[in-house]
Specification:
The chain is mostly helical and about 130 residues long. The protein has helices spanning about 5-30, 40-70, 75-95, 105-130. About 85% of the residues lie in helices and about 0% in strands.
Amino acid sequence: MVLPITAFYASLLGICYLYLSLLVIGARRRYKVSLGDGGYEDLGRLSRAHGNFSEYVPITLIMIACFEANTGQEWAVHALGSGILFGRVLHAYGLGKHAGASWQRFAGMILTFLAMLVTAVGNLVLIHFGL
């Protein structure tokens, strides 16, 4: 089975994850902190952006792969992949740059939740109705 659209978004998300990892590693080396945030607010925010990414992306990509495998709706798979990609990038940017709430974090979470919800409901509809 070939899932080229999911592979495309998984690859872009993988690059984003590597970038977030490098940011955390750089901050850890700068502050000489091996575990935790050492009390450095920016390291804490970067670590959470990295962790948050790793919490939401895998399950969403699995659901998108299932959706792509079960439907021929390429435009919908692109919409879902774009939603999680832009949602995670916006959220990570907002969390990395702002100590408190920001429109980027809010918009990023909305896009992430929408991608997850629409994908989950889409898969359930496909399974139940066999569309």
